[in-house]
Amino acid sequence: MATHKTAVETGQRVSALSLPEELLLALLDEERGYFHQVPGWNLNCAMVGAALGELSLLRRIDTDLESLTLLDSTDTGRPLLDPLLREIATETEPHNARYWIERLAPQSESLIPQALDGLVRQQILDVHTGGFYTFARRQRPGETPPGEDRLAGESVKAQLARIIFTDEIPGPRDVIITGLVNACRVFHLMYQIDEEVEERIQLVSRMDLIGQAIAAAVSQSILAPSLRRPSLTKPIPTVSLRDLVFNRELREGRLPAGFANLADKYGPVFELRLPFIQNVIVLAGLKTNEWAHRMGRVFLRSKEYFEGVDKAYGVSRSMHSIDGADHFRFRKSLHTAYSSSTLTRRLDEVYDLARTHMASWNVGAEMPAQEMLRLFVNAQTSPLLANIDTQAEIVDALEYKVRVLNVGIIKMMPGFMLKTPSMRRRARAMRQIVDRMQRTHTAAQRDGMHEDVVDAYLALHASDPQFLPESDLSLPLGRS
Fold this sequence. Notes:
This protein is mainly alpha-helical. The protein folds into 3 domains: 7-223, yeast vps74-n-term truncation variant fold (Orthogonal Bundle), CATH 1.10.3630; 241-299, no CATH class; 306-479, CATH 1.10.630.10. The protein is 57% helix and 5% strand.
């Protein structure tokens, strides 16, 4: 059995973060907003390996290449670790680290979000819409905030770089995290790795018996997982035609409410079988939306879903139909124009626009709610987002958008319904809006003015026309 010493005695790097949290920070690719290319099962195995490594450093378990032994079942007080420790304590038969990594890997489905939430609460990571992450400004690599000690402000990636590129003697924590990152096979995505550095990585990974055992178990589990296949599945329920026909919300175009009603009756996953169209699997309900917001970028993609919309607007792709790094780049390029701080600076304009529009209302007059709200909201958003007045065209543009959604996404209408004379006229209205936006956003006309969303899109096109060609501007500008 390994002999444990204090952190001071072993030269161990003391960290306020757990090894699972450090592993996530090491694997984060800030350009893409999420982890380096580590498949879900592989990442789950590595996260459990990191948790076992932390438990070993806390003297709750001991492990070697052959077995994992429980030393102390007392809770650590860390929510990331204690559920795993309790499960290990329930087993009476001895098992090795690989067994426990594969057995506990499914728990990473909750372990990873929990760790990310903790890093956000500690202001080490910033979370962005869509489940993307970046280092918090004060925690960027190489920066140490005033008044904080070395470890609180130090980047895990910077520490990893020192370990593999210098002769610095690593502590047990460094050995474990190096072995785990190496087992995930992403060092070459993080740094320029030559043969000498590769040898250094392999050497460091073998320096500590506990770290070596965990890294070996993670690597073996990645190569031959035994728990990939889900169990306890049940058939997906099919929505009856009667429930579709008599669903008032769907008939009147309130799709979110309609699908929410169906989810209440059929559960969060159900299937629509309609004549003449392909069957549709629907994920709906509050918990499903929360899951999709957090984990959708890992398991779902948008390309096929939005293909019909992109085609209708004549673009090859849009922010809505791309995923991963390109989607994140789109979002980052628009962040300033869309940010709450930008809107806060322009609140006086918002109030003035609202008052001006409301001045046209007559006391006691009745107005259709949908039409009134469309014009009221557009009276504020068009000048703020695009610096033009689109009240004359907005109704036609929105009607065209609704038809596009019905044809291209919901597929409740055939494609020729976008080619009717009325739809052609409405499509022209949308194109006129785009033309006006481009004509009014030249450098001379925008000099000294607040950057709006159109400015941001045009700047992205100008800086990288291959990423956002002029032919793909019609959809984002038309939706702005």
